[in-house]
Specification:
The complex is a heterodimer of chains A (307) and B (309). Chain A has 307 residues and is an all-alpha fold. Chain A is 78% helix and 0% strand. Chain A has 11 helices and no strands. Chain B is 72% helix and 0% strand. In chain B, α5 packs parallel to α8. Chain B starts with a helix and ends in a 5-residue tail after the last helix. Classes of the chains: A mainly alpha (307), B mainly alpha (309). At the A-B interface, α1, α6, α9, α10 and α11 of A face α6, α7, α10, α11 and α12 of B.
Chain lengths: 307, 309
């Protein structure tokens, strides 16, 4: 087990380094430096500014310094556009917002989706099953950028029940629409996965044995069937997390929640490479960490897996 | 028991006349199963409709996608609604441009991105996976670790970074989508290759001294086709989703070009003025097409997958 964890960590670290190097090189391949503007700066001033940000060093020195800054001080460097705030400030400002509704959406997707899938499998071919299957097929083609306008149209413009944007320190009514918009398609995927794996488990021999022994239905479902049925769902959590974080960019933009995605898109439009790079690396690091945790959990839960 | 001699003779004649029983090929079998699947057939028809719309739609369009209808500009909410008389079949957008022509153009670009992206994935992914699977051992290990590493990178962010750095163009979009789309395909192709490479016909090819690369191209890849076809019909909607995602943020295709994502974003931005048609038409085509691809993919999988007969 320990060697498996070590091996997984050994893959995770080069992945992160590769991501940092790729984004760093991309940033440097960009035409025009960060201080190119319509009114060119005098060469002496430009040289001074570049020296201040360390841009006059060779590129490998810059990369090593950047990585060193992240590791030792968790410092993603200054924003080249906004003199008064660093990338860290921006992350500190936007990240809690994204995390709040991201976590809620994740929980909704897993809990509601899982419950729906299990219920559908237990009552196969009932109206509940058809409902679950219908919802999961429908939600496949309703990604967050389709859901968000529809939700705002119905609940804000027509019914006027919920605010169509803003954050307001995470007040509950500002959370509902973003969470629904973000979680729907993942909820559907979780429901579909849970349903099919639960059905598969229910037809295995050990469940039949448990039935034949006359165990109570609840014990069979919760003690014997649930754990193996949830394994495939667990392996979906990693990819779901990635695409949810990606989806949060849409949510941030559309609902103006002030989350990290909004800064990301704005910096993309302003060519503020330092902010883009900082956010990309932060999210990449999170993704890798999350995948690592899921993999280790999976290996721990599933006795069939070989280390 | 009486034997009906006449009937027996007739039967014998019939048998003699019928030289050979007409066999059903694997493909014919699959086609029969596919056309039994109602959802898949309906989806195929709908998809053909969308294709026709995108290729022939401009013939019935009165306005081009760049013309501005000055007569209704500024009064889109009152005058820009879908109307058969003035030629704005789908209405007009807030700049007075004809939405019918814009939706045609968006459909063309979105479908093109989807199909080209899937094509890149099919070619690169299949070859990569087949080579990795066939080689086995260390080569396989290294090649698949590379896929692992690439897969755990949040590609949407890298894709946006790529688009910002190298300029937003359809070409860059293709490059960016092509870079990430083949990863899943290579895994699937590899898995399939692993089961294929121990088959007798591959052994025979090795025994007769065929070069590995020829074995991969001539013996392995054709046998992967079933899986590849099924998976690529599921890849097309994924590519369309990716492109729409980026265009929705305003980072994808640039004006005057447009795509479903950009049109949906426009519609979503103006819906509070009551110009709902701007949201409804692009969304309709988007949803219809995605639905169709998913159902066709499902139908093909059921038809081609010998496991579920």
């Amino acid at each position: 087990m320990l060697s498996y964890i070590l091996r997984r960590v050994a893959i995770a670290i080069p992945t992160l380094l590769l991501l940092i190097i790729i984004s760093f090189l991309l940033m440097h391949a960009a035409p025009g430096g960060p201080f190119t503007s319509e009114r060119p700066l005098p060469p002496a001033v430009l040289a001074n500014i570049e020296a201040k940000y360390g841009l006059n060093n060779p590129i490998y020195v810059q990369i090593v310094n950047y990585i060193g800054g992240i590791i030792t001080e968790f410092d993603f460097g200054p924003s080249f556009k906004y003199k008064d705030r660093s990338v860290n400030d921006i992350i500190a400002h936007g990240f809690p917002v994204t995390l709040t509704y991201g976590f809620l959406s994740f929980a909704v997707a897993v809990i509601v989706g899982g419950a729906l899938g299990i219920a559908a499998a237990l009552k196969q071919n009932s109206w509940l099953d058809y409902f679950a299957v219908g919802v999961s097929i429908g939600a496949q083609v309703l990604p967050n950028f389709v859901m968000a306008p529809i939700l705002v149209l119905v609940f804000t413009l027509w019914l006027g029940w919920l605010p169509g944007g803003g954050w307001n320190d995470g007040q509950w009514n500002h959370l509902i629409l973003p969470v629904i918009a973000l979680s729907t398609s993942y909820m559907a995927s979780v429901a579909r996965l849970t349903r099919s794996s639960m059905l598969e488990v229910l037809h295995t021999n050990f469940i039949r044995t448990a039935m034949a022994k006359g165990l109570p239905y609840k014990v069979i479902i919760f003690k014997h069937a649930l754990k193996p049925a949830l394994l495939p769902v667990m392996s979906y959590l990693g990819p779901a997390f990635v695409s949810m974080i990606t989806g949060s960019v849409i949510i941030d933009m559309y609902f103006s929640t002030g989350g990290i995605g909004q800064f990301y898109v704005n910096s993309a439009l302003n060519r503020d490479y330092a902010v883009m790079m900082g956010i990309t690396i932060l999210i990449g690091g999170l993704t890798i960490l999350f995948n690592l945790i899921v993999d280790i959990l999976y290996a721990w839960v599933d006795p069939k897996i070989r280390y | 028991m009486m034997v009906d001699v006449q009937k027996m003779e007739q039967l014998a004649d019939n048998l003699a006349a019928q030289e050979e029983v007409v066999g059903r090929s694997l493909f014919a079998d699959a086609r029969r199963r596919f056309f039994k699947n109602k959802a898949a057939v309906v989806s195929l028809i709908l998809l053909c409709g969308v294709f026709l719309f995108s290729t022939l739609g401009h013939m019935i369009a009165v306005w081009s996608n760049e013309e501005i209808d000055w007569g209704i500009l500024g009064q889109i909410a009152e005058l820009g609604a879908p109307n058969l008389e003035n030629g704005h079949y789908f209405g007009a957008d807030e700049l007075g441009r004809d939405l019918f022509a814009r939706v045609i153009q968006g459909t063309q670009i979105s479908l093109m991105v989807g199909i080209v992206g899937a094509l890149i994935a099919v070619v690169v992914g299949t070859l990569y996976g087949a080579i990795a699977g066939y080689s086995g051992g260390k080569v396989d290990n290294v090649m698949m670790r590379i896929v692992d590493i690439l897969q755990s990178i949040p590609y949407m962010f890298v894709l946006i970074l790529l688009l910002v750095v190298f300029g937003r163009s359809i070409f860059m979009l293709f490059v960016g989508i092509g870079l990430i789309s083949w990863l899943d395909m290579s895994r699937i192709a590899r898995g399939q290759t692993l089961t294929l490479k121990n088959k007798e016909f591959v052994e025979a090819a090795i025994a007769t001294g065929v070069k590995p690369i020829t074995i991969i191209l001539r013996h392995i890849v054709p046998n992967l086709l079933g899986v590849v076809v099924v998976y690529s019909t599921l890849l097309v909607p994924q590519m369309i989703l990716t492109e729409s995602f980026i265009s929705f943020l305003g980072l994808g295709v640039q004006e005057p070009n447009t795509s479903w994502g950009a049109l949906i974003a426009e519609g979503a931005g103006t819906m509070q003025y009551g110009t709902l048609w701007q949201l409804a038409f692009p969304m309709f085509f988007f949803i219809i097409t995605l639905f169709s691809f998913f159902f066709i993919g499902d139908g093909l999988r059921d038809a081609l997958d010998p496991k579920d007969r």
